[in-house]
Amino acid sequence: MIKGIGMNKFIIGFLVLITQIFVANAQESSLALIPYPWSVEQGTGEFLFTEETIFYLPQSQERDLGAYIQEKLLADQNMKVQVKSGSPKKGEAPAVNFLLTKNKEIEEEGYILSVQPSSIQVEARTAKGLFYAFQTLRQLMPVQPSALARIPSVEIKDHPRFEWRGLMIDVSRHFRSKEFVKKQIDIIAAYKMNKFHWHLTDDQGWRVEIRKYPNLTDKGAWRADRTGVSWWKRTGATAEEPKSVGGFYTQEDIKEVIEFARLRNVEIIPEIDVPGHSKALVSSYPFLSCLDSATFEVAVGGKAPDNALCAGKESTYDFMEEVIGEIAGLFPSQYIHIGGDECNKTNWKKCPHCQAVKEEHGLADEEELQSYFIQRMNKLITANDKKMIAWDEVLSGNGAKGAVIMAWRRGAHSPQLQAPQEGYPTIMTSYTYSYISQVQGPPGMEPEGPKVVLPLSKVYSQEPVPEALSPEQARLIKGTEVCLWSEFTPTAEHTEYMLYPRTIAHAEVAWTVPAQKDWQRFQEIVPTHFQRLEQQKITVSNSLYSIYGSYAYSPLEQTGRVFLETETEGYRMLYTLDGTAPTSGSEQYHGFLTVSLGQEVKAGLFDKEGQLLGEITSLKVRKDNL
Ligand code: ACM
Ligand code: ZN
């Protein structure tokens, strides 16, 4: 007995301890920070914002960062804050103090943010560090706007894992306005991403004004309307058809977006995709094609044959010299992305100009001709004091010395190994983990898209540095990027739906060290970020709450085994077998269900309060998988 009581006390004591640990952990995880910082130490007490709270900034930061802080706190919290240069006087009311220091322990883009009841101190070596500290501070503020916000005491030391934290948007397949682009740059900057890769040209539209070549936007930015016809089923346009779909950015528009991005530490990398993906280009200037005296129309979707530039004519290189010159003058980035992907070389094989160049330079095949073309682009780019980026196809032939490689392909190509192993600085743009044009939930429940599923948890799970690389090779991995190709995203809302929340999961892949990544925490705090994003009028997808259903049919038993899966943790999968929508009182799924042929299973994901979180999954067992 006595022993038993002692044991009970022990158990109670143990439970109290567990509860305390749990509470401490609950407080820890209540910091809904994305991307999660390098180190977080919670303290006690809170900093209270009042109408008198002043933000002190280094003088050099007062104009840009000061105005930005005022704009964001007004928008987020309806808080009107004062910004001053210098630092608070002794005995002054609690203030927020941003300092630029020479503290070598802080990395270039890093910061230390110390929140105490008496003050908030931010230390960084650069303006970027101060900017990122402010983003963390924003996320520590309440989701429900409050001009008198309370911030928990905390000490955060933080810096990014990778220098390249990118988002690519394809504005060729479907044009997006400059306002839309600015809106996305504003969001990614808040998640500490720093590169916006602007895929400005492709078969279906040329989107940037080039003053020397007005046809590029007079003709190349416009295509025939095939709205309502599935992308890959579209047939090419005739010369007579009206060309009503498209748009482009003037050079003034581009400058406006660049300045907007500069204030948010986002570098804009323009992509001019050649020699393939150039149907809009050869439609505007047919002499750039191998097919002398042919004419072309901007592609509308579907196949885009004859879309390569001629790699043999000197006039192609003269033309590109002018284009690259204007692009280099317009974009302050040190990089120009020249594409180089998926070039259809059929016409090169028949073209006398291409074949003559091949012969003259002793090139073994068309892959080497591609290398010749890319190396000439590299010369034009470096002549403008820029560095070339290209997709990984340029590794074939004789390679592309001097290029930074975007490694995207899967399968036997393994460019994510080949590029760093051959000494190329490499950015991971993985088809498998970061092509967010793929659908993000059960395909039947998602808008039309490529029939590949890339759920939020898979984006989050990416480890960008392959184990097979040596430490020296691994150092060539500059970072990562999510890519949104826009064949299937005709509207702004649909584009945002594809971007969020997967882009913010990727922000954590790019910023946060593996030891601090935690899918369970991420999926718990993501609803807070849905609220924040929705407050900024961003369309988000809640597909992470969709249940994946599958089954195996047994011809002997004539029944099906139904399996339900979710990428989330901590929620209940509830289902019905009578065709009605599941409710909080429905049966809970624990293992597979055995159901008869044709029987409908409906399932939904519910939280602890009994709220349905996503859409309802419905499936019937059929014989068709025999
Ligand atoms: C690519 O997906 N063609 C780079
Ligand atoms: Zn040619």
From TrEMBL:
Claim: Membrane is one of the keywords in the record: no
Sorted UniProt keywords: Glycosidase, Hydrolase
Highest taxon above the source species: Bacteria
InterPro entries according to UniProt: Beta_hexosaminidase_sua/sub, GH, GH29D-like_dom, Glyco_hydro_20_cat, Hex-like_dom2, HEX_bac_N
Molecular function GO labels: beta-N-acetylhexosaminidase activity
Catalytic activity annotation: Hydrolysis of terminal non-reducing N-acetyl-D-hexosamine residues in N-acetyl-beta-D-hexosaminides
Location of the Beta-hexosaminidase bacterial type N-terminal domain: 32-159
All residue ranges annotated as the Glycoside hydrolase family 20 catalytic domain in the record: 162-512
GO cellular component terms listed in the entry, alphabetical order: membrane
GO annotation (BP), single: carbohydrate metabolic process
E.C. number: 3.2.1.52
Span of domain GH29D-like beta-sandwich: 559-611
Keyword Signal listed: no
Active site, per annotation: E342 (proton donor)
Annotated CDD domains: GH20_chitobiase-like (cd06563)
UniProt-listed Gene3D superfamilies: Chitobiase/beta-hexosaminidase domain 2-like, Glycosidases
Record family assignment: Belongs to the glycosyl hydrolase 20 family.
Name of the molecule in the record: beta-N-acetylhexosaminidase
